[in-house]
Amino acid sequence: MTDQLRAHALSFGPVAALYNAARPSYPDGLFDELERLAGRSLRGADVLDVGAGTGIATRLLVGRGARVVAVEPSGEMAAVLREAGPGTPVVKAGGDELPFHDASADFVTYAQAFHWTDPEKSVPEALRVLRPGGTLALWWNVKDRGAPWVKAQEERLSAALPSYHYYGGVIAGAEELTAAGLEVGHARLHWERQVTLDSHLADLTSRSYFAVLDEERRAPVLAAERAALLAEFPDGLIPEPYDLDLFTARRP
Question: What is the pTM (predicted TM-score) of this model?
């Protein structure tokens, strides 16, 4: 992991509350597709939700009837997870070194988190802890750049933030699983949520490319975004369109 990637990966703790309050959730269709590609139900399955953050996906997996252990390296993120989802076991660890027995899980899931791992370590680790026929699942919400306002915002942030292109939302999950010799399943869902301008800006603030900045550098960029978005959406309600990509691979 490069120094820049490490700085971004460690940036979420101070913004954990914003992350939990403002980040988008996931539609039910995601888990329908996951069950279809895995060839089994989540109900009664043993799931390791790695890079669980504040537990946004963890809670949905529990709601589908899975037995979930949340795996999260940040103590601040895990504290919010425990408060929001009491009763869910939380283990402090990352995907590159999973402290679990061989063949102990039916699913290993990464919601918005696999890009913080080293695939040369995290993929073999996932396969090690999966039972035969178990499924490794990676998914990401990415704003639909087909919406003109999303594209315009991306151009503004790209110009204003030094590490924006570094994050970029570039997802290479399929390539990384294929490189490991695995057969990859894929599903894409399009969905949308409507949020207030304040909630949208809180979501932005929780992104690593903002979280690594101090307040002096962050504030003017957020102020400029507020002005640009109010010009586009004078009622202060933002329709956020998302493409959600799910990649799966089964352990032989």
Answer: 0.92
